[in-house]
Design goal:
- It contains nine helices and eight strands.
- The strands form two sheets. Strands 3-8-4-5-6-7 form a six-stranded antiparallel beta sheet. Strands 1-2 form a two-stranded antiparallel ribbon.
- It folds into two domains: 159 residues, Orthogonal Bundle (Arc Repressor Mutant, subunit A), CATH 1.10.10.10; 74 residues, Ferrous iron transport protein A (FeoA) (SH3 type barrels, Roll), CATH 2.30.30.90.
- The termini are far apart.
- The chain is an alpha+beta fold.
């Protein structure tokens, strides 16, 4: 084994030896629970089902199975929570997904609106070695094309809670850090307005009752709806 391959292996987030293989569906449940926990939402059965786009009764059986495997704990009135091992698996999947998205955009010319579903398929099939080679070819990026933090191979991740454009006070400049990435049409909508990670934005005015926001994006004036603005996450610009 070469030194580089040995180093890559040392960085892999290992699942406990002898742990049963998980189906793609089970892995998706762990990711869904992680995302709900990250947003501070109790991961109840209905919440998990909504996150995955399935019926709630279908979710109950899988949650019980994951609990038997020691990957989640189920607390009355608080829903499901990842165990340490369940969190490790979820972060490994998120790393794979976000590295693959970054590789598709940077190396293969995919648009940022075309990669989510492709990465969803590949994250379950690609080997750890392939994903680590992709990360190395990219220079070990810390965020994907949508600004989502990429967990390290050791399972560390930036979990800061960010405010959205909709939360910004008027005239306060901010930098776009992350955008919701599940909807290709939404990403195209943002791209047409220049709203991407790294862009500078400022709220100039807002209509009442959840109406349009007028923004300065870079040097351009743009308008977006409050619902769209709430899915674009920013940090104050000093």
């Amino acid at each position: 084994m070469t030194a580089s391959r040995a180093a890559a292996g040392a960085r892999k987030p290992l699942v406990r030896a002898g742990a049963p293989a998980l189906t793609r569906q089970a892995e998706d449940y762990l990711k869904a629970i992680y995302e709900l926990e990250r947003r501070g939402v109790p991961a109840g059965t209905n919440d998990i089902a909504e996150e995955l786009g399935i019926a709630a009764p279908s979710a109950s059986g899988m949650i019980r199975r994951l609990a038997r495997l020691g990957l989640v704990t189920v607390e009355r009135y608080r829903g499901s929570r990842l165990s340490a091992r369940g969190r490790q698996i979820a972060l490994r999947l998120l790393r794979r997904h976000r590295v693959i998205e970054s590789f598709l955009v940077t190396k293969l010319g995919f648009g940022w609106d075309d990669v989510h579903d492709e990465a969803e398929r590949l994250e379950h099939a690609a080997s750890d070695d392939l994903v680590e080679r992709m990360a190395a070819a990219l220079g070990h990026p810390t965020a994907d094309p949508h600004g989502a933090p990429i967990p390290t191979a050791a399972g560390r991740v930036d979990e800061r809670r960010l405010s959205s454009i909709a939360d910004l006070p008027a005239r306060a400049p901010a930098r776009v850090v992350r955008v919701s990435d599940h909807d290709p049409e939404f990403l195209r909508y943002l791209g047409e307005r220049g709203i991407r990670p790294g862009a500078t934005v400022r709220v100039e005015s807002r209509e009442p009752f959840g109406g349009l926001l007028t923004l300065t994006v870079g040097r351009e004036r743009r308008t977006v709806g409050t619902a769209a603005a709430s899915r674009v996450y920013v940090e104050p610009r000093r």
